[in-house]
Please model this.
Amino acid sequence: MLVNIYSITLSLLSIVAGFFFLRSLIVAFRIVRYFNIDEDSRLQIRLEDEGLLSSALIQFCCFIQLGGTLLFVLAADDFSTVLAGAMCGTGSLLANAYGFPALIVKLVGIFCYGFWIVLHRIDISSPAFPLMKLKHGLLFVIFPLFLLDTSLQILYLANLTPDIVTSCCGTLFTEKGPDGFGPNLAFSATNQFLLLFGGGSLLAITSLFLYKMLSTGSANAWLLRINGTGWALYCVFGLMAIILTISSYVYAMPYHNCPFDMLKPEYYFFGYPLYFTFFGAVFCGVSSALLTWIRANEVQSMVFNYQRNSMKIAFLLSLCFMILAAAPVFFYRLGGTDIF
Amino acid sequence: MKNAISRHLNLLDFSLLSLLRNRLKNFGMFVVFTLVVFFLGSFQLFTSSLQFMSDQLLENVPDITIQQMSAGRQINMNGDLADRLSHIYGIKSVTRRIWGYYFDESNGANYTVVGVESPASSFSHLLPEGTDLSASRVIMGEGVERVRGLTGRKAFTLFRPDLSQQGFEKAAVFDPNTRSLTSDMLLMHMDTARSLFGMQADEITDLLVESGNPAEIDTIAKKIRAALPGTRVITKEQIAKTYHGVFGWRSGVGSIALAGGILAFMILAWERASGFSREEKRETAILRGIGFQAADILSIKIYETFCLSLTAFLAGLVLSWMHIAFFDGILFKPLLLGWSVLKPGFSIIPHVTGNDLLLLFCLSVVPYWCAALIPAWRSTLVRADSVV
Model:
């Protein structure tokens, strides 16, 4: 189904991002090879200017990929009006083997681009650009991810034909057996609530403590790393809990577990703040942990500031997320009705 | 934080003034960009509106339609077949119907002729209350009334297949608001339709099944297929998905056709952005001389691009909306709708969703940014001493 306006737009965005990426890889190669802040040659000045270009391009790529991921989800939802058996985006993504892997790679990609931008911001805060080589070297790690993302997306779109009969979220997330992975997870709804709200509260409190500790200068890098690992795990389990349990309360239908329908106007775009707060908190938690490996003295104060602020933001976002996630459950349990 | 915001506000201010200073050059770009968005937008909004309208119409389509097939083509069926469905649990009602087309040689129009047992069936929502369809009375669409010149009179005749004439009496005209569905329609009693088409006493063209529970439609359809072999069983969902598939494909083809335009526009934007004049070069050199960083100058250029593209995007969007709302999408109508003698009365209700806006934005604004960003960076490389 490449002849469809969503497919065309997604492909166009990938081409644009790919073009930017390749251009910044050329810059990255030269910087990794020749950049030396102590030199004052013409090449060095040129490289400093090119560093500006690559950062602008990658920030742009990040923006494009963010839009592309949103569009991918919306496209999947639109395809469900054409594919037999698909009732929402989940069904469309399941129509062939590339849909969900493409989405997951896209999400991981956004995390990577986001972290790159954080590194860049920290780097340009010092006139010595201590992270110049590191961040440009990182581009060679991110680029294969981008290629994988684009390939999966093209494979998904090209292999999508309207006569394929697919199954939908009701089958995938609730039935046992080969088609569904719902109860195979051995997590009851209570356990999921416990993970979502218990784990969330624990991480929120830890983040708040870390914020206080960072403010007084007594924080330890290992504490931040443990906290970051916690957030990374929470990303996986929290997402499962949203899909398997919270979504049913949002839709007030036990077998409707679509992670994407809540982004639609019928549910007042409830999914946007929910996912934004969730992924935002996870990003703050994980990125501040990753930054503990940055040892350059010139940017330590900036790293420290970032970690302190991101702990505060992670705390606030996770609070908002838990309130948002709890709202539909409360409405249903107490009022006996759905929130919308 | 406050400093950063005020810095960016100042840069934005500078970019706006710079856009105004080069207003002639920028205006050309603005016009071309607006046109690109207008064409893309009209196409997308048109498709989206058609999809929305077809969804609305499909709400009144019966859950399941059954047609008799022979040698891969639809043929008439016996009305008694309906009785063989009585054992299927979950069926609320089965209605017999005659649905056919009548070609009127006098004006070259095709009428859709619908014969029903009682008007209360699937057309009840379109009719005035208490409409009587006995004998030769018909309810017609306003398109039929217009092309037959029946505004002032009631009686008219049509030819049977054996060229004998059959007389009709106009009982009522469908509400003009439903014209997308009823413009070319003649609704009459089943016996009258049989007589017009020269059909046998018991013959019908299709059976319409309503189910009590929408979730059971697919199961009921499966049972009907088993009970009535040799028939084609079409569910409402299948019709909707086919419509969506066709519209999606058509809009895809249209956007590929317009892709050439986008590409040409990107080349233009690239050319415009990279061929910066002596004056601009001097300006950049002075800015660097008085202490602007390369990053500041890049920000100014990016702001200029953003302002120009967003204004043009909005302008193009408003124009395309007007094109659909006030001119019925006149430029793309033949491509997306087809043509017919009775179709002209059909008007389009504009329907815009957030998805359409995001699609348009990604198709028009993002490529423009892409074309303008690298040249913008190149222009920041001007050294302060280069033009002194």
In short: Chain B has two domains: 2-57+242-386, 77-204. The interface with chain A takes residues 44, 47, 238, 240-241, 244-245, 248-249, 251-253, 255-256, 259, 262, 294-295, 298, 302, 353-355, 358-359, 361-363, 366-367, 369-370, 373-374, 377, 380-381 of chain B (CB under 8 Å). Chain B has eleven helices and twelve strands. The radius of gyration of chain B is 31 Å.
